[in-house]
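Hey L., structure's done. Input below.
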Amino acid sequence: MSELRPIAVTDNDKGQVVVDWTQVPDNTIRYDTDDEEEVMKVQLEAERAERERVEAKRIVWEAKEQRAHEEEERHRTEEEKEAK
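Output:
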């Protein structure tokens, strides 16, 4: 005996059609996976990943700037020592 499934009425261009889900094979039943909540979660995750990527780029850029500044200071100090 198959599991009990609800009987639904759908409306198409030929009028209403009664669907007895016990007559439909399991592998042909498709579920609505385009859930609004799931879409929002995916969008939020994509936004979070983008923010993290931008933050990582900013950190790399700041590190390069810091190294360049330190090297510039070192050269300036060496030039001052040579001038004395």
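The chain has one domain: 7-83. The mean pLDDT is 80.

-- N.
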